[in-house]
Amino acid sequence: MNRKAILYILGWVLNIDGAFMILPFLVSLLYQEEQGWSFLIVAAICIAAGTLLVLKKPKNMVIYEKEGFVIVAFSWILFSLFGCLPFVINGDIPDFTNALFETVSGFTTTGASILTNIEVLSHASLFWRSFSNWIGGMGVLVFLLAVMPMKGGGSQIHIMRAESPGPIVDRLVPKIKNTASILYIMYIVLTVIEFIMLVAGGMSAFEAICASFSTAGTGGFAIKNDSFMSYSPYIQWVVAVFMMLFGINFGAYFLLTIRRFKEAFRYEEARGYIFIILAATAIIAWRLIPQGMGIEETLRHSFFQVSSIITTTGFVTANFDLWPQAAKVILVLLMFIGACAGSTGGGIKVSRVMILAKTVKKEIMIYIHPNSVKKIKMEGKQVSHETLRATNVFFITYILIFVASVFLLSFEDHSLETSFTAVVATFNNIGPGLAEVGPVGNFSGFTNFSKYVMIFDMLAGRLELYPILMIFHMGMWKSAIVPPIKRRMVLRRK
Amino acid sequence: MVSLKKKSQQNNDGLKIIIVGCGKVGSTLVSRLCEEGHDITVIDRDREVVSDMCETYDVLGIVGNGSSYKVQMDAGIESANLLIAVTDSDELNILCCTLAKKVGNCSTVARVRNPDYSDELLYLREKLGLSITLNPELETANEIARLLKFPSALSINAFARGQVEMITFKIPDDNMICGMHLYELQQQFPFQVLICAVERDGVLTIPNGSFILQAGDVVSYVSTVKNAHSFFKKLGLKTHRVSDAFIVGGGKTSYYLAKQLIEMGIQVKIVERDIKRCEELSLLLDKAMIICGDGSDEKLLAREGFFEAESFIPLTGMDEENILLTLHAKRSPNTKVITKVNRITFNKVIDSLELGSVVYPKYITAETIIAYVRAKKNSIGSNVETLYHIFGDRAEAIEFKIQGGSPVVGIPLKDLRLKKNLLIACITRGGKVIIPGGNDTIEVGDRVVIVTMESGFKDVADVLNEG
Asked: What ipTM was predicted for this assembly?
């Protein structure tokens, strides 16, 4: 285990955390709020600690899968721990557990809130919430890879693999640094376009910035208690479309920018994703007809909710908890599917669902024709045996964690619908569930224990299980904590 | 003999042709091109093969690597007109041709059959200056696909870029045209179809109007694609294409065939022995069902619905296995069976088995080359566009493109003094297809299809009886 490299990179993560916190401080200067100072204090602490860690640059920067997982897991934990401190200090969210839940919910792009009244928060805190959505969407370490000059050859791909969602993560261009930069540039450009379109629709600049950040990261932190219910239809349409766009694999956008349109539009996963959105919207709109809204309104609400849920954003324009049963069930199913791999969305991911579906189809065929040979393909390429196995194991692990979480939450005597969808909504980084945690409810009704379970779920969901699970693996700690020299001595004594 | 020699002098001497690689296709080409009177040099790495070729045919043999500069110089590349590279390796063939193009100034023909290149052949041809790229597997697959589209036919040859088809079929018992004179048939189907060859009891004739058709005759007719179908329909024969195909063997031909069939919406099942190849095929052909197993295992075939299949195509590398499988499949009367035969020996035995549709990949290749060579040799007056050997080897169907200065232009067909056993089957003029009568004429720019029992036609003027 290359501990020096890990600490060095974690140092940079802290520095970046500190640097990001200066932004809400600037916002507070603009609105002349006292709460902003807490951000500056924590930023100072982060940068001080970070600078200490990066003072000595290690010679050996080569890292492997193991280190990649550790770096990613600890970065996210550090980010969340430091990120919640300003809320505690400035009194917007005085309770530490609540503040941590809110921050983790932000960085993991969940958007689940323990707050009953959002509108009383300071602008600085609101900005920080939305900004945490944005930075968590594309990933802290991808940002780090984009801005930090690092040696170590191609080994940083392990960091990127551990952080970015999807069964197959690879470079867009030969250099990782450039890949990370390209991802962030496309991310920023799309965010800016949304911002401009929202401002054009009459939103105030501050609201538009926060809304764009939350949409881009598919986070779902709104700055109003009623999320998007009271905005104009134009703004709801814009946000709905952009949520859908941010749920598409960024590789497709990259192909668009390098003018390989044909390939971009042939993305199998994106096609499946759009098909699911259209089908779900159609069915929900059909079930909503008896509610007597106009055609436009019915379509808008169906599409907005579908787009919001499948991308795991979690904005709402309507209280879908009151919708017909079929519509609710479709939304819950969409929560599991999630967005495309390589996007900012969470969930199981369309590509995994497609691979699993193809596996099932193949197995059925093998029952009928025992001698038949069928290889599973995705995006026109063979899915390797390793990827298939990883996808299957991912699914099993996912179900296990899911079931365990529901079990742990069940001690609170909420309704099954509440505990079940609370886990669905946090594990898949969505935000709102049904019943008590529905679009107009929140997560404040849970005990601290349940909140920590859900904090774990959110982190595990965002990092796709393994980096977080790795922390619980004993062998990992042994090699990380016991210094190498000492270990050698122990071996010799034996 | 004298007259023949005189004739060949008239047409200048034969072309100087170098053939690299003496495998199945290579040796067929040597034998065919030798008959046509060209100067041939063969190059092969295998000494025995070369000496065998030299002993069988009147050719010069060189042992060595055909893509080496020295060997090509030894073979006289500088004065050669044509180099044909048909070794096993696509890359070697391309290299041979590229080098030949640089060293000598000859036309080049390369066999390129790997599916990796098949989509970019046009580009390859243009950039590397290849005159023709041969892909026998693809051509075979095309021919089989044509037959599956039209399963009542025994063979289908396409002319005029696919506008005209020559279709061979066997007249079933008690069909309405049994006992009919050909002129009666012409009256029933005026200017739609033209019967151009009939085989009865192993004897081939190019019939005239008084010929009487009988059940069991194998008949070839020329017509447009549309009329071919309506003609079959009127005769009460099946015209719809098959809905599924059962292929044994997973070679390149199977791949090309399956790809085409899937595009046409035909369900494809492929049985292949090698598990690795099965996996490759399953990646290449999404919609095909790939079965890993021995295609000659009767139980496996039965389990996979062999007898329910509408068509069955054995495409293994072994002729014996293919023929055996065909005979096995023949037991189910509604199955269209197409047999691929790689080696041409035992022609008589194959004929006597009545296998139905048989395709010969080597012939297909050789036909393309011979058409090209004949056209190259005589590019004044007319060009050979396509050439098919029909009824085994006993007749040729040739498509000419007529250019200015040809002696046949402008004369009504009934006034042309044509050779015996020869028929002008079809004229295509500006996209319009004419089934000619006696008053039609041939004009400059036409494409003319003739059927003849003689061999070696290089120019449309060869149809005229000079003696």
From this structure: 0.71
